[in-house]
Amino acid sequence: MKKNFSLIGKNIIRQDGLEKVTGQAKFADDYTFANQLTAVMVRVPVAHATINAIDYAAIENDPALTAIVDATDIPGAKKIGAIRQDQPIFAYDKICTHGDVVAMLVGESHDALLALRDKIKIDYTELPVLSDRTKALDKDAPIIHEQYENNEIVHYPLRKGDVETGFKNSDHIIEQTYTTPLIEHGYIEPEAVTAILREGNKGVQIIGSIQNPHTTQNVVAAVLGWPLAKVRIQQAELGGSFGGKDDTMNVLSARAAVAALKTGRPVKIRYNREDSILESYKRHPYTMHYKVGFNNDGKLQAMKIDIIADGGAYSSMSPFVTWRTVVQATGPYEVENVWTDVRAVYTNNPYTGAFRGFGSPQPIFAQESLMDEIAVRLNMTPDEIRRINGFKAGSVTASNQVLKDHDVNLLTVMDTAIEKSAFRKKWRANRQNNLAKEKSFTIDEENLFLNKDDFVDPQNVIKRGIGLAVSFRGSSLGAEGIDAAAAYLSVQKDGSAYLLCGLAENGQGLRTTYSIITAEVLGMDIENIFYLEQDTGLIADSGPTVASRSTIMGGGAVKDAADKIRKRLEDILKPEWKLTDSDELVFKNNKVQNPKNKSQEMRFGDLCKLANSKGVSLSVIGWNKGPDVGWEEETGQGDAYFTYVYGCQLAEVAVNTVTGEVAVERIIAVHDPGTVINKMGAEGQVYGGVTQGAGFGLWEEISTHEGMPRELNLDEYLVPTSKDIGEIIPIFVEGKDKYGPWGAKSLGEPTLELTAAAIANAISNATGKRFFNLPLNLEELLLNRKLHKEDLQRGSL
Amino acid sequence: MPKITFNLNNKDITITTAYNRRLLDVLREELGLTGTKEGCAIGECGACTVLLNDQAVNSCLLLIGQVEGQNVLTIEGLSTKGELHPVQKKFLKHGAVQCGFCTPGMILSAHALLHKNPSPKEEEVKEAITGNLCRCTGYKQIIDAVMDVTKG
Amino acid sequence: MIPELQFSRPKTIREALNLLATPGQNNRILAGGTDVITGIQMGSKRFSRIDLLIDINQIPELKTITENKAHIIIGGNVTFTELIENPIARQKLPLLVKAASTVGNLQIRNRATLTGNFVNNAPCADSVPPLLVYDALIKIESQNSGRELPLQDFLTGTYKTLIKPNELVTEIRIPKADTELRGDFYKLGRRKSVAISRISLAVLAQIEEDKIKEIRIASGAVTPIGERFPDLEKWANGQKISDELLKLLAKKMAEKITKANGLRWSSTYKIPVLQQTFYQLLKKVTD
User: Fold this and answer.
1) Is C258's Cβ below 8 Å from some Cβ in A?
2) CATH class for the domain made up of B86-150
3) Which of A3, A276, A307, C249 has the fewest C-beta atoms lying within 10 Å of its C-beta?
């Protein structure tokens, strides 16, 4: 079945590599415009308050100030949001979280504006702060947004079978509660955007570190009260996003646009790291209560799941993030009886939204911990319990979707990982070893001073563990929303081509993937493809660049465009060569050839020239619309996604049992993303996703004090360095699928979502203890809880 | 305002600026060399890495007065006569670039290491780039690229 | 944001001291800048309202590492990288070199200085515990006078020392031991690199057969500043090495620290882990 590809699956140098290794690539802050102004944000140092008055008297006449911009300057929508319009561009009635901005000072000197900011007097009345998500729906909880009757952003029920009967028929029941923290995307490039008013009635041009230009276009047009086409959004080279440069950038773009409109000059907003961490949205913290019933033979009987996601102050993407959670909450396992409730709630914490993984890393940590616990209870190995319950071809998901039309490779990816690592042997040996020796050290909080027997002999300090986690993941948006993408391909008369897709390059490498697809279809030199700038004026809205949908959706659109061009070229050539419609031509090595008569051959460029001379257009729009999916809101039943991908990650760790340090020695990451198009890019996704996943598992956490983040820069928010992760081994199992270009599907998010769960299981294998609260940092390992400073004071100040 | 003379990318230059300017500000805003990036401003992320007298340093922690009479190399000065530097070539070959924001600093750190130690061990490569955070790549292909430079 | 300021680059110690004596303004030494510039950037009160920054990086006298019969002498502006790469330091001050290697990242070590580390005197200053067990002395000079004192006496509290605004640390003098000392440095951080110390420990001991003839112990990060433990050392000196003794020593250290500083937010973790890691370190040194 495997096609003999020229470029697909090969090592291809990045499209945008040259400008990036030479420092020429232009990121948002690298743009400077004549006469541009800069801006600083005015904030209120509380998480919840009503604003009474703001007194600018002390600065109003200062020459360093060009304008004060606030909500009164907004001609259109004052609040925005994908589902609920609850997030103000400038807060005007109340403060809902620390990142809120009440006004923006605009002028020429950033330093001068910072000095002016200290002189503003804001009169506000503090309100009780809601920081505990599990109390958000209590009767006496402070209401964050008065226009809604309570703090519930969304509630997704899923009802399948009869859980009570399922539990009654179970030989065993385990109930556990798991939590995961607030996580910062940690893109190395902080946010920046410039709004430039264009001549006459041309509207506004915005260039910035924008993940989803068309979403930004929608927001800016709504805020200005303008037609969409009067707003042009250009994406600068994006210095990392991981889902993180969406809502924040929409808001910043709108602020810059309003300021440009007010001052008549270009306005640039650039955030430093502290601004960025304070105001940008993050990954949802989850509290997850799982109850599972199962029989002695290992078969799952029933699952009852109650999940609360902290949406923070604004709804943002919460309704989408938590929807993926409800679809995938039981994991890739057949369970006949399921009762799931997933709720997202408002609090005064930083708001939360899209982040690579998107509502999956949290439940995977819970469900995969639970599966290991079941295995141990039944004296099985972790792979055995998964083999009994894991999805196979024709399995039915919790939402009653039958898995068909693709290779259901869950057990294949697991077995591949297991074979690679001698998993079963190591897992059993570690367990025996660790049970045989003394119990792992745990701190007795009642007595911090050790008895003689508490001291661990040096040779027993390090314990090794191995663990795995598996997942299934719906590709693309699913029933979340409209799923279609556009591509523009314009082949020039010499055979070179412009290419652009409506999905955006965020660093993941889609320019390269799309160029490979185009070159593969047309047999042209990949060096002859020139990728255009991302600009809403040049390409149709293709939905957001999220949900690991670039290859499957955008790739499909690009292939459609390339196929259309190829058809046009074939239609020209076949009559010339006296061939019939059904005769095949080979497009390869920059040439077109009749395989049955090799003397019939033409250079690709010559063929394009011929097309041009015949008045045939070689500029096309490719379009790819996803198949229909469905969802019953009341019962959580339906075909949630049109296809799925499967992954298994296996972690080997060394735990220092007296300090709680965890060294990740090896991760084997086996994924079925369908056909791999861009091999180096795919491997890069695995290395990067695993590393982020390990950060989520072991180190990363934004802790808050009364809603205020403590970790505001990269000295305290700990992302993995080059020395923190050991070997990572990516393995691809390329399952067949009828969707996606040549069956290519999704990879970016699966790589991240499994790592923390695999590491947690490996740590349990090493220590004989289970852990329920990420990150599994030093304190968690020895105390089973976190320790935080009581205040917000940064140590060195 | 003081005049500062230093060697930038193998050329002596003199600029007039203020003493509270960081080298990073001068490079980006006054000299238009935007290949050097700002990611944290406190010496944690390494996006602003430049070479000062062949040593990797954070240009966010250097005041402009401190480079008077010194040699500064930025990413813009690495390739000569249109020819990519071997580190740049290997970064491309190994897929060591994703979003590219950390890349200039990363390449300069690698270059500084190889200048001092032409055949580093993998652990030494990792140590040399701990001051350059990358959120995209998980570092693997970067380390492979640097190791490959040593093979020529 | 860095406010407007004056900047000067003296070529000699004398010139630097004269600048430091400029009356009526806030003069500050700028060495590596890794504390000063970040402090200014983050709006730290410790670095506010600086009128004149005196960059001492052009003073060759402060850059040397030498030895004489009695001392190893480290110039007052030697960076961590210079220290790590120096043959004398590598051979004779292994604990200090090991600690220096764990400071920040390479870019930081290329700029940050040993002197800056203890003049800033953060609780987690990695070089302080080794310097303390080496009985380091420091030479301080001002325009009109100079003095030499043990580092231990110079460090008075978190981010506090005895330095006066017109003074410059010009030398660190480490007495050479006349007997063979064994020792090690230990640091616990949250990451494998670029980590702020949660616990740091330095131990230097003279071991004769199965006895501790003399032991020197210092801690960092678990105490408000790097500290020596003279009472503990005295208690341990002369004792026969046994597993029991080392455990007791570890426990006594934890008790002493808790008694002196009370329980802090991090003590629940640090106090037990300090005992375990100190015990591990003692085992290693006395093995």
Assistant:
1) yes
2) mainly alpha
3) A3
